[in-house]
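Researcher: Please translate sequence to structure tokens.
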Amino acid sequence: MDNKGNFTLEIVVVGIVILLILGITSLASEISQEKISKNVENSNIEKTINEVVDTLINDPGTPINWEDFKPKRVGLAIINVDEKVIPNSVSYFKLLELGRDYDKLVKRKIFDNKFSSSMELKPYETSISSVKIGSNDIESNKVYSVNRVVKCDFFKKYTVCDFQQDSKCNHNHNQKDYSCSYFKIFKGNLKKMDYYLLFNESENLEYDYYIDNTHFKSHDANKITKTKIYLNNELSEMFEANESTSIIFIHLDKKDAKSVLVAVPKDFDKNKLDYNYFTTQTCEFILKVWD
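Model: Translation complete:
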């Protein structure tokens, strides 16, 4: 083969090599671009999920008590007695209501039917059961999960008195030695509600309680022997013949007693008559999302 033929062959070989390099570079570029695009997509999904969680736990929704009505916008945040939002909080009853119509309120309204999801509330206090709503079937290898530490009120709306808080006493007991509180009751309430004194399991129950009002100031002391005490019978004795209302005082002869007075509906699950259910608890709130 002459020099001209060799030169032509070299050109062909060089051309093939250049084409191979360009092809490999193009393929690598495509793979890299696809990877970047996927990372951006994942980043956007994670950003969206974080925004959803932060909105839910800091927005009470519209109306603010939407769990009792048809919601215009859902949110889980708790509204306190001053009608102010408690940041990073979850209302137990709003969460339960969200679970009753999860597909409509979450899958359709929040995620526009693009994702499946679940929410779980896990109390740090082990005596309280966790709550999970949404889908139980994860049919994807790619699951996005976001966690937040929140406060949850559970059954706190049924708490009438919390003996860890300062209150008034009709005997002017020194609150360095006592835990006293009072409340107004209608006689008809006893037909609709059950009243209980609940004590924390950690309490040393070697102290007394007694109940009175402005008419009966020398009611007998009662030894506390268990963490759950039914009070309806004692409360029914606190009314004068023609009275329909009464101001009741409850006295515990211990400072900062871990105790609450609750009034629950007659059909309330008595297995959940536990002190911790009626006080604010720290929990982990978990949102899982997949496509």
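Researcher: Any highlights?
Model: DSSP finds five helices and 17 strands in the chain.
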